[in-house]
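My current task is to audit a protein record that another person submitted. My question to you is simply how this chain folds and whether the tokens agree. This is what I was given:
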Amino acid sequence: MATGQLWIEPVGDLIVARLRGEPTEALLREAHDKVLFLVRDSGRGKVLYDTLEMDPPPVDVPWAQRALDEELGAIQLKRAIVVPNSRLAYLARIAFGEGNYRVFYSDIVAAIQWLSQSEAASDESKVSNLT
């Protein structure tokens, strides 16, 4: 498996984090720190995680992400995680737990649309998907 690589940059109203290869706890810490720096610097709290080229890590790595999320405090993030398969979707759900996020299967366009919705529209789409 390839060593993990990371690219994080602001794009429009979003912060885009691309992860490739197999991530480590150290790489997740670096990603977390860079995302939070950009959130604080730009005032943007919408983050797109592109993991389409990421290899599944050992299960302790997603738990490390969850621990990082516990350090967020008052920072509110809305995150879309784009995954290529059900294994990474499962690990994303472990990693982000109860946060404001949604997992998308290989659909970056839908992820961007969801992130671009207002909170009221997001809540409405959750309700309409349940009926």
Remarks:
- The radius of gyration is 14 Å.
- Residues 124-131 have pLDDT under 50 and may be disordered.
